[in-house]
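Dear colleagues,

As part of the handover before I leave the project, I'm documenting each prediction I ran so the next person doesn't have to rerun anything. This entry is a single chain, and its sequence is reproduced below.
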Amino acid sequence: MTTGLLEGRVAVVTGGARGLGRAIAERFTAEGAAVAVWDLGEADGVALADQVDVSDPAAVEEAATRVRERLGPVAILVNNTGVAEACPPWEVTDSSWQRIMRTNVDGAFWCARACLPDMRAAGHGKIVNVASIAALHGRPSTHPAYAASKAGLLGLTASLSHNLGVDGICVNAICPGFIRTEIHDSFTDAQMESFTADIPLRPHGRGGAGGLPGDVAGAALYLAGPDSDYVTGVFLNVNGGARTG
């Protein structure tokens, strides 16, 4: 069921070609938004699909200009793009650290900075940063740069929410836990159990623990829509209780 919560709004979703970003882009489109996807992969079913490297600030500024020209001023930004690797600390290379940090943290700021003129001129806007449970709850297989970058994204959320409130702009973050996507279809039962053992919530009818992309898309819709107009600086856990508070 859709209610047109985002009717007439222009939304940018980074990393929207697959996974969580695709689910968010589809949900926003269904709710009436004109969605622009910025992703190095190819997206479909949206108002504007643009191949953008968010780690390149010049490319991000150019992409924002294209959105304004084709769709109008940006009202909503979802910073979903993220890269990750499984790597122990003693094997981390300079290049992998820099690539992850530049994409996950720097890229989110470049995108926010590029969209802010539209939001400030309008006197309202929504920025939703997709962080991770890794920012608060590290695992042995998590790349240190991934955990650090997602924690940095929470810091960025806090800073922007304080600075942009006077402009009517809400800035919040989602912290997903384990979310089942198509990449997990080939995992064995034992592998899935290792990922989900610490998740207490087992929703009826899902055949086990672990969230779905739609769970994150629903949280993003709330934070992007009018029901959260007095909500800012929040870190919203979507993890089935694996991390509380």
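Helices lie at 19-30, 57-70, 94-122, 144-164, 189-196, 213-224. The chain has a mean pLDDT of 93.

All the best with the project,
I.
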